[in-house]
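Sequence decides. Consider this:

===
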Amino acid sequence: MGKCIDDYREIVGDELLYEIYTKARRLSNKHILHINSTYQGGGVAEMLNSIILLMNDIGVFTGWRILHGTPDFFSITKKFHNALQGDKMKQRLYIECNENFARFTHIDHDLIIVHDPQPLPLIKFYRKRQPWIWRCHIDITCPNRELWNYIKTFIIRYDMVIVSDEKYKKEDLPVPQCVHYPSIDPLSSKNKPLSEDTIHKYLHKFGVPTDKPIITQISRFDKWKDMEGVIKVFELVKQEVDCRLVICGDMAPDDPEGQQIYYRLIRKTRHIKDLLLVIGDNQIFVNALQNIASVVIQKSLREGFALTVTEALWKGRPVVASNVGGLPLQVIDGKTGFLVEPNDIEGFANRVVKLLKEPELARELGENGRAHVKKNFLVTKSILDYLDIITRII
């Protein structure tokens, strides 16, 4: 049985569902299409999996297409991703891949929503007869200037740009820009309530003992997540509290850099006591790990949003995160967790130790975090925001 918006009634209440139904009726004859670069791995695919099913359930016909690309293409677009978040860049197969995809992908919809840089140039290869939106999920506060000027040649063809934070809006971009928060699905395998038996079953299956307090960072194997910095934090925390660090990462099909980072971490961590490195592409395991963790870390150097933080907060876990990108939208310092400057190893360690030693404080921050997510970052709120945006632009 597919997902149904009514399943969320007990979580979000009747008023929000009524508002969704009312706004959806105005779009009952419209056909929306989302395009991104991967069907699994990473937050964009996870969000689309829920949003598209629920949009169809409320009567707004919504489709999803995946950009087909070679390994070389994704290697290039990964460099683009890094360049937009501060690195140097190169380009080439980028245009060819999008042009080839456009030749065998026919678009006859009322609205097109393109996600992130990989499929951005598609708009160039269609006879545009409908509004197009570019949804940017990454941190573009300080992009490589040469690359930014290059991709702007495509962005200015769009009718709207959606970003995840007010500070990501660009003054040099004439296209209308709006803010739309990412979201999590509270009824997905990664976020639904789990029994104690299920939690311990999956932790045992993945070799995670529960005899000590667990601190964890869950994210893609990506250089911007600074997992080596997380290890340094753990080594300081370990001097104060006997605990265990679980680094849980996944690798998306459009991210060839992830494997290199994973194998480098294996070499660096094999002799560190109480440190576990896990490939966490099993959603129930990730759910179990977040439920059992005493503290969740997100030590990103740059960060668009980080849905793993939202997930942890939803489960009532206190979070210590870097004060960068979209993380301050979720982690309100001293209320839902703690914010620390990204390179402050000692500051991270001190906050983690404080939470491990003060369980009442950890519990209070966790409860505040869950309420914050319920108000701002659930998929039902995202559906409502999309309905507003679609109504405005069609």
About this structure: The chain has a mean pLDDT of 91.
